[in-house]
Amino acid sequence: MSQPLNTEEQLQAAVDAYSVCQNKVESAKMLGIPRSTFDDRLDRAIGRGFKPSGVVVKNNEDTTKHRIATLEAQLSSYKRDELTDKYIRSKIFGLSETSSAPPNWLIDSNPPKSSPGVPTLLCSDWHWGEKIDPTQIGGVNKYNIEIAQDRAKQLVNRAIDLLNNHMVNPKYPGIVVALGGDMVSGDIHDELKETNDIPLIPSVVDLFGTLIWCIETLADKFGKVFVPCVTGNHGRTTIKIRAKDRAYTSLDWLTYVLLEKHFKNDRRVTFFIPSGPDAYYRIYGHRYLLTHLDQFRGGDSMIGALGPLTRGDHKKRSRNMQINMAYDTMIGGHFHQLIQLQRLMVNGSLCGYNEYAYANNFPYENPRQAMWITHRDHGITFSMPVNVSDAIERTEHTESWVSIK
């Protein structure tokens, strides 16, 4: 004799399964029956007034395994959607959950009085991988991977020379190497994608190796290196720059985290890699805010970048005062124009004058990076740009050390 089409046990199981899953597809999977069969049983059960019994629904072993696999897939998807800075740093790169705080030597209030202070070398706008054609800009500059490598080495060697051979009592507790973004040229425009010297990923790998040499060389010379880092706009992997997850969509950030992983066992080197666009730290009592400055736009042919920079600095100071993060000096890059003031430090570039600057009639500027010293009592004292091109025009020194026409 055949069994009834729907027994009371089957109808009750349908109601109980749906009360657990709240989804007809998942409920049918849990019971190991077709969706149409489950719909029919659930409709009949509701029509006859069945209520959830609170009893765990029994199913076969294969259905249980399927349910577990489904839940594991949902959990994996959730984790992918909920990646945080802590998760990325700890699970993917094997680093501490939070980026390091500034080391004690940077804020030591009692350094030797004879010490000139702490030097800062601001490195930004290297545009690694970009190719600049001298025939398109009047022959004033040339840039490619080989020249970039040479200029990076010149930058480090000349910084060491300036700080050790042109300063009285050159005894420093360490050096700050601020990485200010736009370290790679990127593929953010079709013209860059078509004309870059090498593809994007190989340029990141080459930049990574060069930065290792730079940091190791400075650590060997100065003993300790503090590396605050922010992202720029050229290294982004999105069409437009983002406010949310800006760091996680930037090849600058990827380069920084790989560097931190490389140096994690070297106690001489400390990284500070915020998740947002700004890095806030202090040297002795002087408070710095490092940012790429790409958020400031505008300017004109008369005052250049000073207009948007001054307005942007005012807005950022007001915001930071409201959140108890007031700063003394904002530093950054983006504009490829060296401006060294007490309240504002804007960097030059390693790539130098390019087709974009030439086509827009921007003033010519040699490839160079900003460097200065922060004194314990006097704040910013010596400012000394580090020129990295031998193409600088030199005049013959045939007259006395000073003269008047």
Describe the overall structure.
The protein has 405 residues and is α/β, with parallel strands linked by helices. It has two domains: 8-81, no CATH class; 88-387, Purple Acid Phosphatase, chain A, domain 2 (4-Layer Sandwich). It contains twelve helices and 13 strands. It has a six-stranded mixed beta sheet with strand order 4-3-2-1-11-12. A five-stranded mixed beta sheet has the order 5-6-7-9-8, with no helix packed on it. A two-stranded antiparallel ribbon has the order 10-13. A hairpin with a 2-residue loop joins strand 5 and strand 6 (286-290). Helix 2 crosses helix 3. The longest helix is centred in the middle third of the chain and has 23 residues, at 200-222. The protein starts with 7 loop residues before the first helix and ends in an 18-residue tail after the last strand. The model has no long low-confidence stretch (mean pLDDT 86).
Total strands: the figure is 13
Characterize the biggest β-sheet. Answer: 6 strands, mixed
Please name the CATH topology of the largest domain. Purple Acid Phosphatase, chain A, domain 2
Q: Identify the CATH architecture of the largest domain.
A: 4-Layer Sandwich
